[in-house]
Write a structure and sequence with these properties.
The complex is a heterodimer of chains A (141) and B (105).
Chain A (H helix, E strand, L loop, with lengths): L8 H20 L3 E10 L7 E5 L4 H6 L3 E2 L8 E6 L4 E8 L15 H8 L4 E6 L5 E6 L3
Parallel strand pairs in A: 1-7
Antiparallel strand pairs in A: 1-4, 2-3, 2-5, 5-6
Chain B lengths: L1 H22 L3 E9 L4 E4 L2 E5 L1 E8 L5 E7 L6 E6 H10 L3 E4 L5
Parallel strand pairs in B: 1-7
Antiparallel strand pairs in B: 1-4, 2-3, 2-5, 5-6
């Protein structure tokens, strides 16, 4: 049995407002794409790392848990990225981990990451129309 | 009779070629040779083979560029982002992509 109810005038007004807002959001929204990020060294071994979007604060990236390959995981980081510009620069920096693979210390800069891990950071400009799977390769200092 | 049949098959082949062009193919056969031959080749983050010389089918899908990487222990990794035009130009002008990875300092 199907029950249909006729919307009241105020209900109809709310629906119209919601539809208008959705339309507005769709027209003016910033395109977002979820990127799959993996990080390896030149021996193709996963490297626990922090991924920072250009302009983003490193602390904010850490608080947002933008880490990859922690706890000996080889799974990629799935990171939604808003493309406010045609190209967004991504920075990847290795993080020091304990035996369990948990972060010992979060670096705040690329030189600090190199100092703590011996690995050089890497960065790459990414376009909305680029492939969403990214592999970063970090070199030894 | 034979002449008509050959003309018809010729027309069909031409139609097939035109259809391929109209579709705007997104798959390219690309020869890649990397030194050292033990290097791993990655396309769009997925391992597709090893160095030496191999021909890879590279599918752009809906993307405008592809990412090709070569990695070998003790060597600096190689990384390029290529558009369809860049791949076409390379194939027409030089043939294979040939990269020699520099040893890490």
């Amino acid at each position: 049995m199907t029950v249909t109810t006729k919307p009241t005038r105020s209900g109809r007004r709310s629906l119209c407002a919601a539809a208008g807002l959705s339309l507005l959001a769709a027209c003016g929204s910033i395109p977002t794409r979820t990127l799959e990020i993996r990080v390896v060294d030149t021996n193709e071994q996963p490297v626990p790392s922090l991924v920072v979007i250009a302009g983003q604060d490193w602390n904010a990236a850490a608080q947002n848990k933008q880490f990859v390959h922690l706890n000996h995981s080889s799974e990629p980081l799935r990171l939604p990225v808003a493309f406010e510009r045609p190209e967004v620069n991504l920075v990847v920096a290795a993080v020091p981990v304990d035996d369990a693979g948990a972060v010992r210390q979060t670096p705040r800069t690329r030189p600090e990451s190199t100092e703590l891990t011996g690995l050089l950071g890497s960065d790459r400009p990414v376009r909305l129309t680029d492939p969403p799977r990214l592999l970063f390769v970090l070199q030894r200092r | 009779m034979t002449k008509t049949a050959s003309t018809r098959s010729g027309r069909l082949a031409l139609l097939g070629l035109l259809a391929c062009t109209a579709c705007g193919t997104s798959t390219y056969k690309v020869g890649i040779a990397v030194d050292p031959p033990t290097a791993s080749i990655y396309v769009n983050g997925e391992k597709v083979g090893a160095g030496g010389r191999s021909v890879y089918e590279i599918d752009f899908g809906v993307d405008e560029r592809v990412c090709i990487q070569a990695i070998a222990p003790g060597h600096e990794p190689h990384f390029v982002m290529l558009s369809k035009q860049q791949i076409t130009d390379q194939i027409n002008q030089y043939g294979d992509f040939q990269w020699t990875l520099r040893q890490e300092r």
